[in-house]
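Training component of the fellowship. As part of building independent skills, the fellow (R.M.) carried out the full modelling exercise for a liganded target. The chosen ligand was guanosine-5'-diphosphate. The inputs are recorded below so that the supervisory panel can assess the work.
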Amino acid sequence: MTFPGPEPQDRFQRRIGLWGAPQSGKTTYLAALRVAIDRGESDWWLYGSDDASTDFLTDMTHQLVRLKQFPSATVSLPPGLQWVFRGDREVRRRIRLGLSRTEQEVTTILLELLDAPGGMFWGSSGRPAQAKLSGRVQFGDGRDEPGGPAVSDEERLLDHLASCDGLIYLFDPTRERSRRDSYDYFQRTVLQLAQRSAERSRDRYLPHHLAVCITKFDHPHVYEPARRLGYTDNTTRDEGFPTVPDGLAAELFSRLCEHDVENSAVLLDKGIRTLFSPARTRYFMTSAVGFYLDPDLRRFQPAHPWNVIEETGPGGEETTRILGAVRPINVLEPLLWLAGTVLPRS
Ligand SMILES: Nc1nc2c(ncn2[C@@H]2O[C@H](COP(=O)(O)OP(=O)(O)O)[C@@H](O)[C@H]2O)c(=O)[nH]1
Ligand SMILES: [Mg+2]
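Fellow's submitted model of the complex:
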């Protein structure tokens, strides 16, 4: 069965793109979105715009919640998946000269994921390496025809991202500690975005609204510095789960970036502030799986925040498993914020 997804070519249809370096948590974020919605955190709902997208979402959510497993790193998304975020929003309608009233309007927004097969691969020229990993090259008009200008899966994904109204960018501080390559990924993607979309901006920034999600908040390498620096508050939730006040997430992001001794996260921080309008950017401390809740004490234990265990298999292979229930933090909020800002109010 195919859901009646909105027409992608509709120029009034708003689109949101999800992106971030490989392993930053994109697929898990998507699975956790369904969990957040199913937990009743909002009246909005999410489904695929076709069978493949719905199946993918259902499988990933099942794997996360029931099997307590993260998406396999080797699973790359089939191209063209797209999800529909649907809900009510308030709009102001003009009824007569000088008079308007607030009405509820059903709204749909498309969500797409920039996920190159095997991770985005970049050639030495700084351009996406053509179909090196996907093994598939198509031509400009979508036909596999010799002679025309070649367009790789990666370039098509970048075209998609550039045409989005809102972007959710996932930044993984734990990855930055070990790999320090988020900036390279960010910078190259953003240059490609500028090339494709800067001209439609009315100011000096890129035209997109940007939600920066600092992922894996539950991880001790993220939670601990946030707590030490005094940004966490344990008084807002019944179970004592830490939260970071909305207005402080941007500052915390900068402080976390400052910890990067090789400076690449500092460049990333500066890059975001230079390229995206501060008025169109918001920061969120996010965790797809949430903090661990001790089942006996039913209270968050600061000494044991992490909802994930790392195990070594018989062959020495490292695996991670989710320990307790999945309680997403700030997974739905970025999407709801973007839905509210990228759509016209009347
Ligand atoms: N602690 C923690 N780890 C996460 C979370 N989300 C993802 N991860 C880890 O990050 C890895 C990569 O996530 P994935 O969603 O596959 O990243 P993608 O490559 O960007 O799609 C997973 O295998 C997990 O080990 C989270 O919310 N908390
Ligand atoms: Mg993935």
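The panel noted the following from the submitted structure. The first strand starts at residue 14 and ends at 20. The pocket of magnesium ion (ligand 2) is lined by residues 26-27, 71, 115 (CB under 6 Å).
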